[in-house]
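Quick question: what would this complex look like in 3D?
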Amino acid sequence: MATRADVAKLAGVSEATVSYVITGKRKISQPVQVRVNKAMEKLDYRPNRMAQALAGGKSRVIALLFPTTARGVAHVDLEYGLGAAQAAQELGYHLVMWPTLDRSVDELIATAKSGLLDGVILMEVALEDERVQQLKKAGIKVGLIGRTGPEFGDEIFADRDFETAAYDACKYISSLGHKEVAFLTERTRGKSVVVAALTRTKASMKISGKNHGINIHNFECSTDPDEGRKFLKQILDHKPKITAVIGLNPGAMVGLLQEANSQRIEVPGRLSLLSMATPESFVSATSPRLTTISPPAFEMGDSAARRLIASLEGASQDDLPKQLWSGSLVIRETTGPVRA
Amino acid sequence: MATRADVAKLAGVSEATVSYVITGKRKISQPVQVRVNKAMEKLDYRPNRMAQALAGGKSRVIALLFPTTARGVAHVDLEYGLGAAQAAQELGYHLVMWPTLDRSVDELIATAKSGLLDGVILMEVALEDERVQQLKKAGIKVGLIGRTGPEFGDEIFADRDFETAAYDACKYISSLGHKEVAFLTERTRGKSVVVAALTRTKASMKISGKNHGINIHNFECSTDPDEGRKFLKQILDHKPKITAVIGLNPGAMVGLLQEANSQRIEVPGRLSLLSMATPESFVSATSPRLTTISPPAFEMGDSAARRLIASLEGASQDDLPKQLWSGSLVIRETTGPVRA
DNA sequence: TTTTGTAGTTTACGCGTGTAAACAAAAAAA
DNA sequence: TTTTTTTGTTTACACGCGTAAACTACAAAA
């Protein structure tokens, strides 16, 4: 591999001049620039990234934390990751996958201090997320998919617009004539970490439900599909007036749907189902296909990465993609008018 | 951040001694080792990975190619990726996500030459995969999830055992009494790249079908669920004797299932469905839940990464995880005895 | 006694870049 | 003309580590 010295020799200039042509941090005359560029092309020169990182103190590598629970990873995380990785690539950065079983960031901080990582993107952000504090204290830039709250003014993030999402959901469900609606979220009792999305959506649903004349009944269960099955029986037996379920619990939603199918409960005839958290790519496997308001995961990953990198470069925060994404309602086969 | 010099000073030895204590490449006396280790601990010393990479010529970073088509990424890829990333992490390596729209590896080679990448893991490997040649020619170590063929003796890979998978599928389906079985694969006509898995499975199905007294009818269609829907009509109309479908096309399989549900075709009463390529985590969304023989994706990713890294380190190839994985049959709700 | 060997440690330098500071040449000001 | 400023380029070194080669102290062999 050709080095800067080779380029300098071929172009008949000093090594520093080559560097300055590349970075543009000093003015170099037109003819010299041309000579250097030609030499670089001829030698197929690529600056050594390790040397750049060592000398410059920046690796241009960021990490994406994949929170892996016992049950595996949420598939939407892959889409966040791909969006972020692709954006990073376009900007000359690289994204390393960082699976974690617990929520510890110790190893991550150690790696960042060793010079490999310039920044980190976090998912499944809690309202009070100690990881954010720990990373910041260690001097590591943090980007969020999601956000802490409510003082997030100085944070770098891309998140859903829960107010709009809840509004759209309630508007649509109410337009179908539903009055008694279950809102099914993930279980929070006994959990040390409550993802911020849950709190925000719950609050927004309460307001939007009222505004659209819907009675929102809050339920929660674990993300296991079996829990979704039990939940179906529960509402059929104890809350027969409920005619629609809005869900922020993709695992339970598919279980609910499966149970409805096998018990010949008509969907959407008897019960309409709308999921607010099922990734698009997952919907294709459901039957009948779920109506959703889903996060534009790829775009959100892209946005978070671009914002983090802009911050790393000290670049202006203009010309960046959206920060809040409502996601759009896609009407499929699990929602319909309430039966007369 | 503390450097080697700090440690050396505190321990009262030279910098080289510190390095040799870490790497163990020279013999260092017990008392000195103890002094150095204590100094490292006290200073919370972490070798700078960029300096290590520059001086040592190895970055201990590998890339994982995510082939992203227009339709998105196969979700099984996430599981491969997590397995590989976790294995890499355990071994002191890191894995960067490398999304590619086409199958070009030019940019990847350039990045490897710039010193950032020691090796690459490839997915969706074709029988004659030019990427493998290109990367090898550029001096980049390659690990495969899948394999080229048939001369793969010197290659580093983890792949499915298609012979066993096909055998298990045919044995089970035949035990249910099915005689006329469709085998549904992805479309190959007009495609420049044929994934090796397809060719191998087809060949194995032919043999195993014969051995189990099953008539295998080969079909192929695109991975679009809509194609799966059309396919259902096609076999019902033109091949009514077929009572089971074995699929190597997850997209079409879910479409098929959806169409069967909406047309009230009984599954598995009228038609049994067995998928050989649907990732476990995807199955939870199907209704009724698909019977599968699925690749143990996480373990395969783990194996591929461990093998690649062992090769990078020049380590022995012993004590490595399996190379060929058949995956186990998980009987769920879409298979049953043929109707009398 | 001298020679040879060995274990343990240090010296010395290279890896390829970023960039502050020094410098030279040409242009502008005095 | 001399002095100052500006522009363009180079010199010099730091970044933190890996490791070959040199060295020291001491034991063993001749």
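Answer marked as accepted. Chain A is about 45% helix and 15% strand.
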